[in-house]
Amino acid sequence: MGTTQTTQAQDLNERLAVDSKVTTGTLPNGLKYYIRPNSKPENKVELRLVINAGSILEDDDQQGLAHFTEHMLFNGTKNFPKNELVNYLQSIGVQFGADLNAYTSFDETVYMLPIPTDKPENIETGFQILQDWAQGALLTDKDIDEERKVVLEESRTGKGASDRMAKKYLPKLLADSKYSQRLPIGKDELLKKFKPDVQRRYYKDWYRPNLMSVVVVGDITAAKAEELIKKYFTPLTNPAKERKREVFAANPYKKQEAMFLTDAEQTSTIMLLNFTPRRVEADKTVGDYRNTLVEQLAFSALNQRFQDLAQSATPPFAFAQAGNDSYVRGYQALGLALMPTADLTSAINATIGELLSVEQYGFNSSELELVKKNMISRIEKQYNERATTNSSAYLGEYQRNFLENEAIPGIEKEKELYTTLLPGIKAEEVTVALKKLFSKEDKEKFFALVMSPETKDAVVNNDATLLAAVKKAFTQKVEAKAEVAVKTTLVETLPAKGSITKTEKNDKLQTTTYTLSNGIKVTTKATNFKSDEILFSGVKKGGTNTYGAADKATASMLGDIIESMGYGDFTPTDLEKALAGKNIGLMPSMGEITNVVSGRSDVKDLESLFQLNYLQLTEPRFDESLFNAFVSTMSTQLKFAKSNPQIAFVDALINDMYNGSPLKPIAIPTDADLKALNAKRAVEIYKNEFSTADGYHFFIVGNVDEAKLKPLLEQYLASLPATGKEPKYVDNGLRLKPGNNKFEFKKGTEPKSLVVAQYFGEAAYTEDLALKANLIGDILTIRVIEKLREEMGSIYSGGFSGSMEKEPYSQYIFQTQLPTGPENVQAILKQMDVEIAQLKDKGPEQKDLDKVRIAIVEKRKEGIKTNQYWVSKLQQLQFEGRSIEWFMNFESEINKISVQDIKAAANKFFDGKNSYIGILNPETK
């Protein structure tokens, strides 16, 4: 059947049905539910409580209380007073923040709860928690007053240049709609003083079943989930006199307006150009769905043009992006965002010029074919993985179906629609679709905004000149985009094949390791975790430590430099087009002591991934003009980076922490660093580190067919040249400043501080000791949340991490970053000392050790059924030499660690010899 016939076979008036795998229903009280049984991951169910209410519904005296209510539901409900909810969930391996979370936006509030289902009582309690959130909040005066500090700390984290400018531009950007007056974080003065009854009023008005949905996806039967939903949510009631859930409109722009804002702490120049929002309806029919595909093609093709320009030898901008979203539910608006590389005028002309080119000459068929290939390839991959899709992938679309009526026909139907509709969509109608969003009326009514660190641009430096530049850009003469022939052969001449000289099976790990004729080792593990995923990683000893101060900048940025110039005959843009329709990707990177290539592929494109790997390893491309463009763009992006107080602090901190060593890590490249970059030297280093077979160990994990894999290993890996020089780890002698040191840095006008603490030293590495370091970091995180957040109200977020490294020397480090206010810094430092002293004196509480242990075990159970886990784990076991026996017995190893073991390890780690405390405070007024 031909393309036209296939397209015509789709009845455009056919209504989009709900995926048959989803059970939906509405309770008598109006609550809607969605259930999808899904066994990936095993023994876990994802629960969501979705409230069709957010900050837009707040009364004038409630600004910020939609979000405050979200906080309160973790701080006291009918069945879980005060902090018992978090305490209980941690006890079953659910981590606060990482797993258990929520968010509040203008129009909705969503609560997220993943529950392990290996114990039936866990599931029951999960639904009880959702019911408590829905209508069981205690909202006591005491709990509300204690939470004020935490919410104000969250508000504090958002303050700075972006926030200050947002207060000025939001009324214009949102055209004085109600949305401009209802930012979810609210107003600090109100948050400090509101009466608890005002919050209770919000909860009573809007937390009601006819504005709620419950989403259940995971390892549970539909019958069981429906039974629990009816049990826990049927009793919920709506208010006798319920308030209308008003839907607020987006206001149109009435004229051409521009705003040029500057702030001393802004790190780069960003421009937004927004056109009037249009009211849109969700897709209901196949015809609607086709129209959406047409628009997606238009934006994908336009953004590809922008990306081509950004990657060119004379980029007018570091990036430009067109979108069709808006800040208001139910509305869409054409919008542009860009970051200039030099002057604003050139960036504005180039961005608007592409819109005008489409308007006058249209899209061409070759650029649309590339976009179509990518769209079809993506949907095919989703379809191929339909039996192994993670539960979390479904949650968003069911949520949007409830809130926005987004269609949920299911991947089978969507794949059918893509493959039958896309081929029949012509360039002419894609052009028409974009022109509808960029009409004569749009050009007459828009809002242009620039946020910049300075006003020194030669031409565009205030409201009037910005408006003039945009208006003038609309009058420029433009050219049609030329049709481009795309070369698709990655390797023109196949290399001489090598051979497999040895094959070893490991029954414990269920892996096969091949030794190739050039010395490369390849370990493969066939899995069924994802039906259409193969992960690929190659690692060898080496890294930036191999190079001295003169090469430091080039080595540190090596991957980005090489990527900016391309490979073989392919510029980055050419390569992207050559790979259109292939779900593959590969990226080189240099760590301190290793060189890594990381990639992925679907099953059908595995040979293309091997070809790409061969091309990238053997033919790094030298292109002076593209290199200069890369450096110029970097220079523009970094010029004002240190205007941001935290960036400036981290940069100064690292310099002090390493005693100004020329080998210290580069946090923010300086002008001197950028001037030290050398394209020829980058290619030379890359060839030294990546292009030879010496010392490589590759890991291939996923839906691998060994019979098809072996010829690829011989053709594309065994053919890499070998020199016989075995690479090694290099210890370049760089160390943190010894002793107990404190560093204070003052920058910024907002009352914001940041406490950075590190405790470190050298100790003989063992896997047991490394695990204890990890556990201690997690235990201290619990203490930080309980003490610094819940009791003291001094932070909104923060935690500890503990780790050990064996190479290049055996070391451990514990670190934390705690955003706070200057008035809290000393109390936080004092409390951290108390928590560490207590850990050394008494060890952790047994319940805290149990919590962190079960969290690690639960994460491991889930991780061990993913390809990504095995790629990194096999690298640890078979490249770094970690113990396979210890790995196989991990649960018994972690379960035998006692309170006394943690206490002993804490005394070893926190020996008082080496610590580094960094404090960022605002400038003294």
UniProtKB/TrEMBL annotation:
Q: Domain Peptidase M16 N-terminal, which positions?
A: 38-157
Extract one GO BP annotation from the record: proteolysis
Which UniProt keyword terms apply here?
Hydrolase, Metalloprotease, Protease, Zinc
The organism's superkingdom is given as: Bacteria
Recorded GO molecular functions are: metal ion binding; metallopeptidase activity
> Which Pfam families would you find in this protein's record?
Peptidase_M16 (PF00675), Peptidase_M16_C (PF05193)
Q: Which segments constitute the Peptidase M16 C-terminal domain?
A: 199-374, 688-853
- Which InterPro entries does the UniProt record give? Metalloenz_LuxS/M16, Pept_M16_N, Peptidase_M16, Peptidase_M16_C
For this chain, the family text in UniProt reads:
Belongs to the peptidase M16 family.
What is the recorded name of this protein?
Answer: Peptidase M16
Organism listed in the record: Flavobacterium akiainvivens
Instruction: State the taxonomy lineage.
Output: Bacteria, Pseudomonadati, Bacteroidota, Flavobacteriia, Flavobacteriales
